[in-house]
Inverse folding.
């Protein structure tokens, strides 16, 4: 963690960006004295108003050609800003970067959805009363491409979302930050541990159509959701995948795609290469040799992944490589990382095999990694990163782990197969429109894992009013490398949990 703090308005919780194929870290910064205990709070919608966030979209004005001083500030075109109980959450699409700001900083940025002078900002926002700090803040945000200097007639395509009305004891985010979309259960492989039970002959009738996904994408975007991850099954098996990707990209989501690359073809590569807001394509390789990689994922997986990555990187499509740790490959992590680095992947990540979907099979339980296996994998992963053979896919790795002793790192990874992130930032939608929090909860909760259905409920109604989601948010949690997490071994209730205890 950084030893010193900057004295300016914004505070960022380990924010990150990927630029020119490199993951760069940025320090956390403290909120300055000017922003502590300030009375200003973000505006709220009137009570009984529509349960949708209102946002301003100011179209660019290309007709201006006059001569004026550039003495105003305005949000850059690729900015999306959401008010939250803690202040504001900002996405910079151009840099694929997220930041958190306190109330005063958020109010200043929102005020700059139209051209504002320094004097106008100070007059409109009483807490912004220190001239030198305000100037430093505005300068910093211009350097970060959040703001730009302009004349008084400039316009922006930036979007500012005001929050849904919330009670004082309800402080979760106004909307998910990201959402995972499972387009289909079909996949050209039948991996033995597949958490989704996907396979080549999966029943696809009843899955959302192209038009239905487009409607949902618009709803998600208008709700203030920043990121989507398109997965399955394998989304590439859908003939309309390029159209769905294009629709999400054109709306302005930052998009990640998950695939095993078996179905990769030239049309799909072109669609990925042309996507302006694609963060990465994510794929999986479980061994540095065909024998190990194909052990649980089936014949030909190694060849498909290695060949697919080479084709994607040649087309300048960013790729993130992942490995599912099991008892057979825990000692192969560094070799897999080296292979990924030689193929030109943008980042590498690992995670443990866990019991969900086909992963609950008795024959696989002996392959679920122990804490000793996870320790071996964690140290191998650290060695690969420190040697520079590959970059970590998670930018937080470079912020949170450099100063940790090995035993501290080990504890961060222990029991990861049983842990799920507290459902306060992300949510999932399955191919049939059912919403749920985590794939790991399905074996425990059964049908009660589903929080609602997008066919009958708005995503924000589910996010704010699902009793099951509230219960999960209130479940005992603790902080780990992956954030606030819940131990699934402590979750009771649900049809499967009751059956197991009867």
């Amino acid at each position: 963690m950084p030893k010193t703090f900057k004295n300016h308005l914004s505070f960022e919780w380990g924010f990150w960006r990927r630029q020119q194929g490199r993951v760069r870290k940025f320090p956390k910064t403290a909120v300055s004295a000017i922003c502590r205990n300030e009375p200003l709070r973000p505006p709220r919608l009137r009570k009984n108003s529509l349960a949708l966030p209102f946002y301003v979209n100011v179209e660019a004005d290309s007709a201006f050609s006059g001569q004026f001083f550039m003495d105003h500030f305005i949000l850059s075109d690729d900015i999306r800003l959401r008010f939250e109980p803690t202040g504001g959450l900002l996405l910079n699409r151009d840099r694929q970067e997220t930041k958190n700001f306190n109330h005063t900083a958020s109010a200043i940025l929102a005020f700059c959805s139209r051209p504002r002078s320094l004097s106008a900002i100070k007059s409109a926002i009483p807490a912004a009363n220190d001239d030198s700090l305000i100037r430093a803040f505005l300068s910093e945000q211009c350097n970060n491409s959040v703001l730009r200097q302009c004349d008084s007639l400039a316009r922006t395509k930036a979007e500012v979302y005001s929050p849904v009305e919330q009670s004082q004891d309800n402080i979760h985010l106004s909307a998910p930050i990201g959402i995972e979309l499972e387009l289909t259960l079909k996949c050209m492989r039948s991996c033995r541990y597949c958490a989704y039970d996907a396979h080549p002959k999966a029943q696809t009738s009843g899955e959302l159509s192209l038009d239905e996904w487009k409607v949902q994408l618009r709803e998600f975007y208008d709700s203030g959701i920043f990121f989507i991850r398109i997965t399955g099954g394998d989304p590439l098996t859908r003939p309309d995948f390029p159209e769905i990707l294009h629709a999400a990209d054109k709306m302005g989501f930052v998009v990640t795609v998950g695939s095993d690359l078996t179905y990769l073809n030239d049309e799909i590569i072109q669609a990925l290469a042309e996507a302006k807001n694609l963060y990465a394509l994510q794929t999986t390789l479980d061994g540095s040799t065909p024998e190990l990689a194909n052990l649980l994922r089936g014949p030909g997986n190694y060849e498909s992944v290695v060949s697919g990555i080479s084709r994607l990187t040649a087309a300048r499509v960013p790729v993130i490589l992942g490995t599912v740790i099991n008892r057979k490959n825990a000692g192969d992590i560094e070799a897999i990382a080296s292979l990924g680095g030689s193929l030109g992947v943008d980042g590498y990540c690992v995670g443990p095999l866990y019991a969900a979907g086909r992963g609950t099979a008795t024959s696989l339980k002996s392959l679920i990694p122990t804490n000793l296996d996870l320790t071996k994998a964690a140290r191998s992963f650290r060695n690969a990163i420190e040697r520079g053979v590959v970059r970590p896919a998670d930018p937080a790795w470079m912020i949170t782990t450099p100063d940790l002793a090995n035993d501290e790192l080990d504890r961060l990874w222990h029991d990861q197969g049983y842990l799920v992130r507290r459902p306060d930032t992300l949510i999932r939608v399955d191919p049939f429109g059912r919403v749920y929090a985590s794939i790991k909860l399905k074996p425990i909760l059964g049908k009660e894992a589903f929080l609602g259905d997008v066919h009958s409920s708005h995503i924000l109604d589910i996010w704010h009013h699902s009793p099951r989601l509230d219960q999960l948010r209130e479940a005992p949690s603790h902080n780990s490398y992956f954030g606030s997490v819940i131990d699934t071994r402590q979750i009771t209730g649900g049809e499967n949990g009751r059956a197991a205890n009867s």
